[in-house]
Design brief:
Strand order of the largest sheet: 3-2-1-4-6-5-7
Low-confidence stretches: 1-5, 663-671
Largest sheet: 7 strands, mixed
Number of strands: 7
Helix content: 40-55%
Strand content: 5-15%
Oligomer: single chain
Radius of gyration: 31 Å
Distance between the termini: 33 Å
Length: 671
């Protein structure tokens, strides 16, 4: 169709193209016949003659080798001449009926955003695949629910005013480009209309989206993921305008403090009926924690007031049963005895038994906590075998972590740790010593990621302290050494391996001799076959559940090799490693998830945020035990409630981080 007396000099046509040499020439000539002469074809990595054909047909050809529909569109928006005021997007496969474009241009006085609607005409609708019809219907419904605007289609043929497109600040570089544009158009209240458009099966090439099951699934997941992100941003915007936001810090603080007060009487899980009211109090704390995610800022006074007051309240709470072993092993050392050599139930220790000795768990197993931890127990027990003293020592390390994190990442980001119910309970309430491990680990991480040589030396020493406090940080030595090996800095690689060993060797001296060093009770059934709250139900799947836990070291080793190859920073490696370790570990306790929380301050990991709430499902175990059950293993449904938020949150964080990495190189606006 030839249209005369038309001059669309202020319109730029952008055509993302991939392997469309059969159709691109016809599409370009159709546009030229309509009076459109400023045409950009963005070749998105074609392996045929698409680029040459488009150039011969009279189009400007740009190259965008990184795959992605949105990336190609964005590339086409770069360096646009000043006189261009409208941008027309269309496909190069010949499926769009371009004869409708004069109707588009006629609407420019009244609208900012004009789209083709392929779903009005029966013949056009029939030309779309069932997946296309279903996906477009679902996405437009979700846009209507979120933003109140009723679109009918997500078609590629669209004309938009340049100034309004820049206002949308497009971010998606994949299949989510079209849905993002429409949702943001509704968000910014662009004047929008849809015009019925003819559509026919593609005239050449192969669809990258609807032509295959994989492509359809991939496109669908990206579109839904994009909408989920936009929903979140939309809700944040609504909340920011809400008067409730002014009182959010008050509400969050009150709920956290009130929740702590509610759980104080219910810390002794050996008594029947303690866990349900404990869960109710934790739920109140959790609500306060969730509200803290919405705070735009927090003052230093609020930050420390809530962090300290909640922990002080829980000083009065009955501790978990691990504390009795801490007291016992510290006391034993002060009598000149080695807790690694003598389990609490050893007959020769009968004269030393105290009134609380019977509360020690696994009394037939000798000490499992590493040597620096043992020396810490000994130092405290030399002062007093007081639960309160031990709790204060754990809280001091916990608050030290708060201080380190807020210095590096700011007060607001550090709320994920400082106001976290799992953190507050685990150290101040449950009296678990893991804060002693987290403090040197976090300090080491912050030092090692600075790239300063002096800080690296300090970090390596602190890493050694963390290993000698809890063995699990040992693989981080390998990662640090590997980063120097890759740079061929052999001296530093050697230092990074040897220096962390020093604290371990020195602290082990009081417990080892030339012939014996029993720091890990490898023969204990608790170590070799123990299980609780595990993510992988391997024990229940195998016909012979009495397998050795060491089997899981194989997949862990494979995962570590992958992380060595992929990770670039100590924090990134450590967070991923600890997450995988928990997923593979046969023995998981609720407070183990506290290891991850400091790293979520930097990464914002949603899996860690969510498991900070769902981890309390774990306390179904002591609840059942208090009622007389002897089977210390979560049921399948309990494991699902505990682990699903963690896994989904990690997957979501990975998706968002990956998307952000792709977007990082692009400002997201036309120029």
């Amino acid at each position: 169709m030839k249209v005369s007396n038309t001059n669309w000099d202020d319109v730029l046509v952008i055509i993302p193209a991939l392997n469309e040499e059969e159709t691109i020439e016809t599409v370009i000539h159709s546009l030229q016949d309509l009076g459109l002469h400023q045409i950009r074809v963005v070749d998105n990595g074609s392996c045929d003659r698409t680029a040459d054909t488009a150039r011969t047909a009279g189009a400007d050809v740009l190259s965008e080798p990184v795959p992605g529909y949105g990336r190609a569109c964005w590339q086409g928006m770069q360096n646009i001449p000043e006189h261009i005021h409208w941008i027309l997007f269309c496909d190069g496969d010949g499926s769009d009926d371009l004869s409708v474009l004069p109707e588009f241009f006629d609407q420019r006085q009244d609208y900012d955003f004009i789209l083709g609607n392929r779903r009005v005409r029966p013949d056009s609708r029939a030309a779309m695949t069932p997946v296309q019809n279903w996906g477009n219907g679902l996405a437009t419904i979700l846009i209507r629910w979120g933003w109140g605007h009723s679109f009918q289609d997500l078609g590629p043929l669209r004309l938009i005013r340049r100034s309004r497109l820049e206002q949308l600040n497009m971010q998606d570089r994949g299949f989510g480009w079209t849905v993002e544009m429409q949702a943001k158009a509704a968000e910014h209240k662009l004047r929008t209309c849809e015009i019925p458009q003819g559509y026919r099966p593609r005239q050449g090439g192969r669809s990258k989206i609807s032509g295959t099951i994989k492509g359809s699934v991939q496109a669908g997941s990206v579109i839904l993921g994009t909408l989920a992100i936009l929903y979140g941003q939309h809700l944040q915007l609504l909340y920011a305008k809400s008067p409730l936001r002014k009182y959010a810090v008050w509400l969050s603080a009150i709920l956290l403090v009130a929740g702590c007060a509610m759980i104080v009487p219910y810390g002794d899980f050996t008594q029947p009926g303690m866990v349900p009211p404990f869960w109710r109090g934790v739920s109140v704390m959790g609500l306060g924690f969730v509200i803290s995610w919405t705070l735009p800022q927090v003052s230093k006074v609020w930050f420390w007031m809530v962090a300290i007051s909640t922990r002080c309240i829980l000083l009065a709470m009955a501790p978990g049963n691990d504390i009795w072993r801490y007291l016992w092993e510290g006391r034993l050392q002060n009598f000149g005895l080695n807790p690694f050599a003598l389990p609490p139930a050893a007959p020769q220790l009968l004269p030393l038994r105290t009134a609380w000795w019977s509360l020690i768990n696994h009394a037939e197993t000798s000490a499992i906590y590493p040597p620096i931890t043992q020396l810490g127990f000994r130092g405290l027990a030399a002062i007093s075998t007081s639960v309160l003293l031990f709790k204060v020592a754990f809280i001091a390390a916990d608050l030290g972590v708060c201080w380190l994190l807020q210095r590096r990442f700011g007060l607001l980001n550090t709320l994920i740790y400082a106001w976290n119910p799992l953190i507050i309970y685990s150290f101040a309430g449950g009296a678990h010593y893991d804060s002693w491990f987290i403090l040197p680990l976090v300090w080491a991480w912050l030092c090692l990621d600075t790239q300063s040589r002096r800080a690296t030396l300090v970090g390596l020493g602190l890493l050694g302290v963390s290993i000698a406090t809890k063995w699990i940080s040992l693989p981080i030595i390998g990662f640090v050494g590997w980063t120097f090996v890759k740079k061929r800095e052999w001296i530093w690689a050697s230092i990074s391996i040897l220096l962390p060993v020093v604290p371990m060797l020195i602290s082990a001296l009081p417990f080892c001799s030339l012939t014996s060093c029993p720091l890990i009770p490898t023969s204990s059934s608790f170590v070799t076959k123990g299980r609780s709250a595990e993510f992988l139900p391997i024990g229940t799947l195998l016909s012979a559940p009495e397998w050795h836990n060491a089997v899981l070291l194989i997949p862990l080793a494979i995962a570590l090799l992958f992380l060595l190859w992929r990770s670039t920073q100590v924090g990134d490696f450590t967070e991923s490693y600890l997450g995988i370790l928990l997923l593979l570990s046969p023995v998981v306790h609720a407070w183990y998830f506290t290891w991850l929380v400091p790293f979520a301050v930097a990464s914002g990991n949603w899996g860690t945020r969510l498991v900070s709430l769902s981890a309390f499902v774990y306390f179904a175990l002591p609840h059942r035990e208090s009622l007389g059950a002897s089977h210390w293993l979560l049921t399948s449904s309990e494991r699902i409630w505990l682990w699903t938020p963690f896994v989904l949150g990690w997957c979501w964080t990975w998706y968002v981080q990956r998307s952000n990495a792709l977007f990082k190189a692009s400002p997201g606006t036309s120029q």
